[in-house]
Amino acid sequence: MSFHAKPNIFVNQVELKVEDLQRSLDFYQNTIGFKVLEKTDRTASLTADGAHPLLTIEQPEDIKAKEPRRTGLYHYALLLPTRAHLAKIIRHFIKTGYPLQGASDHDVSEALYLADPDGNGIEIYTDRPSSKWEWKGKEVVMGTNALDVQSIMDEWDGRPWEGLPAETVMGHIHLHVNNIEEAKHFYRNGLGFDIVNNYGNQALFISTGKYHHHIGLNIWNGIGAPPPSENSAGMQSFTLVFPYQTVLDRIISQLESVGASIAKEDGVQTVQDPSGNKIRLIVE
C-alpha cells in the first residue's frame, strides 16, 4: 500500500465525537473489528494492528446528536489489503445482519458503505491494482457501478472473520464542504494536493502520488452549509501525515499564503479548511 507511505501526503487517523462511548465501542469492536489500543472514561483509540491508532472516539460531557446538513464528515474509508478480506467482512455483515447503506464498484476500487450509531459514514474497500486504473490526462476514471458480490465471495479463503486485518489503513476521507472552489484553492494551493477527478461541479477528488484519492470533497449538504456546533457528534478532526519536516514547513508557508491560520494543540499543528473542517498536521 505504497500510496499511504512516504513520499505521499495521506490521512492516517480520524477523530470522532460520539454520544455514547460504550455504544460506539461495542459497534467498533464487534461490528467493524477494531481493537482497543488505549481507553479512558471518555475516550478510546482504536487500532487494526495493535500499535497504530486509526480512529479515536471521544464522548464530551455536553455532547448532542449529530446535526444534519452541516459540513464535516461524509465518510472515512478503511482500506483492506485484499478482496479475500472484503469477502470475509461481507460474510460477517450477513451473519450479524448489520444494515449496509450501499455497495459499489468504482472501477479503481470495490466498496461497502455503512454508518456508525451516531450516523458517521464509513466505507470499507479494497483497491484494484493501480496498473488497471484508467487515466484520461490528469484525471483517473472512477464510476459508480453495481458491485459484483459473488465475484468477491469467490475469493473467500474459508477462514472465519477475526476482525480487521493488521494491514488495514485509513485509505481516504470524504468531506462535506460548503464551497467547491474555496475548497479546491485551499487543498491544492495550500496543502499541495493534486486534483485527480472532477465530479461535475458537485464533488472533487484529490491525492498525492497519483492515488485515486486521499481526500474527497462534496457540496451535497448544500452550498453555504454551516459547520456543526462544537458539541455536535461527528468529526472532531482528521490527521494528515507528511513525509518530512521540510515538506510540512513548506506546506505551512503555502497555507499562510492562502490566508489559513495555523494553531497548535497539544504540540501538534492544526489548521481549518474554509468549511471549518479541522486538520492535524504531523510528520511520521
Terminal CA distance = 16 Å
Please name the fourth-level CATH homologous superfamily: 2,3-Dihydroxybiphenyl 1,2-Dioxygenase, domain 1
**At the third CATH level, what is the topology name?**
2,3-Dihydroxybiphenyl 1,2-Dioxygenase, domain 1
The first-level CATH class name: Alpha Beta
Task: Give the strand line-up of the largest sheet.
Answer: 11-6-7-8-5-12-15-14-13
Instruction: Name the beta content range.
Output: 35-45%
Put simply, the count of helices is: 5
Describe how the helices and strands are arranged.
Layout (H helix, E strand, L loop, with lengths): L9 E8 L3 H12 L2 E5 L3 E5 L5 E6 L13 E8 L3 H14 L5 E4 L3 E7 L5 E7 L7 E2 L2 E2 L4 E2 L2 H5 L15 E8 L3 H11 L3 E6 L3 E5 L7 E4 L15 E9 L2 H13 L5 E3 L2 E5 L5 E6 L1
What this model shows, in words?
It is an enzyme of class 1 (oxidoreductase). Residues 10-127, 169-284 form the VOC domain. InterPro entries: Glyas_Bleomycin-R_OHBP_Dase (IPR029068), Glyas_Fos-R_dOase_dom (IPR004360), VOC_core (IPR037523). The chain has one domain (2-283): 2,3-Dihydroxybiphenyl 1,2-Dioxygenase, domain 1. Helices cover 19% and strands 36% of the residues. It contains 5 helices and 19 strands. The protein has a 9-stranded mixed β-sheet, covered by helices on one side. A hairpin with a 3-residue loop joins strand 6 (102-105) and strand 7 (109-115). The radius of gyration is 18 Å and the shape is globular. The two termini are 16 Å apart.
